[in-house]
Specification:
ATP-grasp; 20% strand; ATP-grasp domain-containing protein; metal ion binding; D-amino Acid Aminotransferase, Chain A, domain 1; 14 helices; 4-stranded antiparallel beta sheet; ATP-binding
């Protein structure tokens, strides 16, 4: 395996059998990615599987410049980027009768002023392309409770020419989020298809699933098929929906067109996801998919401890509830006894950063200066008991 990794994921390069290097952001240095991909093509080519929105967007935009010896799900037809763009996705949903939150798309201050009086709070702000908003705000989706909050976030996005959506806040906590993870073949078949739902995520309510469980989700699977079949999509996708806490109705939230962070559920629940993903991309024939076993969990320990800390400190969950929620965990992300180096590498980086921060703070105190304020890797509003009821209804 050849891995082109972001700096934040450099620990993955220590994995057994992996070769590769740290790459710059493809939006800032497209040529470096073209050179790296052409080098891989010259060495024999192979299958390219994207693990980030930025990578999938780049491959879609540059597919025609890549050699034929490189096989990708992404193509130059624009389908991947259309589903990735939440505005285009919600328009498509409206056209085919799929329920989605109401929305306003904002790309200029003029458009923002035009809908100012129509916006009700709380609402949800989403980057049309979430990864672009995340690079600026630290998150792609966030709850907005007032006009002042909206204007602060909007200014930061619009100054960087990043369009965003204001959408309806669908009542229900994060456990109401369901997902259909699929691989759709060129002929419209589904070599891989399973359901899951979130038990916890980081940041809370609007983040990546830190503890995810396999679950039967027929409504979400049907909604996902309806959309993918309509546009003739080919590749891996993760469709997320939310069930309205009051009415029980299912709302489309988003479709990710790359391997989801919780893909370990595919191994935990017995559907042989990794092989079926690769084989479809490589054009290898597959037999019937093994049956999904519900209630099997996948945990991402590096963010699960953050999610647990937030939920327990806000008294939203007890430690007893946390421990019970871990039952059934079969996959632990990069933590593996068979291949421990990535986890040890990541832990070493975390420890070095912590030691460096403590040393810097001590040095500032010795010099009689206040310690510099630090910013967490994923900026998020702190959850307090007073804010908890509001957040849990998001």
């Amino acid at each position: 395996m050849h891995l082109l990794a972001a700096a934040a994921n450099s620990h993955m390069l220590t994995s057994r059998g992996v070769h590769g290097k740290v790459m710059p952001d493809p939006r800032g240095d497209s040529q470096a990615w073209l050179d790296a991909m052409r080098c891989l093509a010259d060495s024999g080519g192979g299958v390219v599987i994207c693990g980030s929105d930025a990578a999938s967007e780049w491959v879609s935009a540059n597919r025609s410049a890549l050699p034929d010896s490189i096989r990708t799900f992404e193509s130059a037809d624009g389908v991947h980027t259309a589903l990735m763009d939440k505005y285009e996705l919600y328009k498509l949903a409206a056209e085919i009768g799929v329920r989605a939150p109401w929305m306003h798309r904002i790309s200029t201050h003029t458009e923002l002023r035009a809908i100012d009086s129509a916006v009700t709070y709380p609402c949800v702000l989403k980057g049309a392309l979430g990864h672009r908003a995340r690079a600026i705000l630290g998150h792609g989706t966030v709850q907005v409770d007032s006009r002042d909050e909206l204007m602060t976030m909007a200014d930061a996005l619009l100054e960087n020419q990043v369009a965003f959506l204001l959408t309806e806040l669908v009542p229900g906590d994060e456990t109401a989020l369901e997902g259909a993870v699929t691989v759709r073949g060129r002929g419209g078949d589904y070599p891989l298809e399973y359901g899951r739902h979130k038990l916890r995520q980081w940041p809370p309510d609007y983040g990546v699933g830190s503890l995810t469980s396999s679950k039967s989700v027929p409504g979400t699977l049907a909604m996902n098929r309806r959309i993918l079949d309509h546009v003739g999509y080919f590749g891996v996708s993760s469709c997320e929906t939310k069930r309205h806490a009051g009415t029980g109705e299912l709302y489309l939230i988003e479709i990710n067109v790359r391997v989801p962070g919780s893909f370990g559920v595919a191994e935990a629940c017995g559907v042989d996801g990794s092989w079926r993903l690769y084989a479809t991309a490589a054009g290898i024939p597959l037999g019937p998919q093994p049956a999904q076993v519900d209630g099997r969990h996948s945990m991402l320990p590096d963010i699960e401890w953050l999610a647990v800390r937030a939920r327990t400190s806000s008294h939203d969950q007890t430690w007893g509830e946390v421990l019970r929620s871990w039952r059934g965990t079969r996959d632990f992300g990069i933590v593996s006894l068979r291949d421990p180096r990535p986890a040890l590498s990541m832990l070493g980086t975390m420890v070095r950063r912590r030691v460096s921060r403590i040393a810097r703070e001590q040095w500032m105190r010795l010099r009689g200066r206040p310690a510099a304020t630090t910013v967490e890797t994923t900026p998020v509003a702190r959850i307090t008991p007073e804010r908890d009821t509001r957040r849990r209804s998001a």
